[in-house]
Amino acid sequence: MNNYRTFSWQFLAIFISAFIVHELAHKFLAQYYGSWAEFRAELYGLIITAISALPIMPFKFIAPGAVMVHLSDRQKFGRVALIGPVTNLVMGFGFLFLSFVYHHSYGPYFDIGASFNGWIAMFNLIPMGVLDGQKIFDWNKLVWGIAMAMAMMLFVVGYMK
């Protein structure tokens, strides 16, 4: 994960957008389904996120809070959980595509964007606790498996490229 130690405005944009787009996707899909949805910050998560954002830290942990949703429909709840990691996959594969197109100029940043979004998706897909992965796994194990495989592939390809 040494590529994540490069501190620049490009990396900062990747770091922040990976989180914001993920959380907004949860919120907007939940609201589309007619649910109440709001972001709630957690002090402990904010501190851990700020520390992990430092360039010297090898591990990035983004958890300043989460979108709280109230849905009783299991399928809709699973889809709301899935949309966050899916946005990271879409962003990551977009970065991967751009890394091939612009490999001479911004290629390294796009590689980092691909790998980092793969990491965020993969972490959120862990089926435990309050993570998205637990909700998706409880709803549909096949969908969870496909999403996790894609996240792993994106992380590895972006990192190895």
Structure, explained:
There is one protein chain. 67% of the residues lie in helices and 6% in strands. It contains six helices and two strands; from the N terminus they run αβαβαααα.
Structure characteristics:
single chain; 161 residues; mainly alpha; 6 helices
Q: Average pLDDT value? A: 87
- What structural class do you assign from the helix and strand content? mainly alpha
The radius of gyration computed from the alpha-carbon positions, rounded to a whole number of angstroms, is 16 Å
Task: Please provide the count of β strands.
Answer: 2
Quaternary arrangement of the chains shown? Answer: single chain
Strand content: 5-15%
Which regions have little confidence, pLDDT < 50, spanning 5+ residues? Answer: none
Q: What strand order characterises the main sheet?
A: 1-2
**What is the H-and-E element order?**
HEHEHHHH
Tally of helical runs: 6
Distance between the termini: 13 Å
| Major sheet description | 2 strands, antiparallel
How much helix is in the residues? 55-70%
Overall geometry: globular
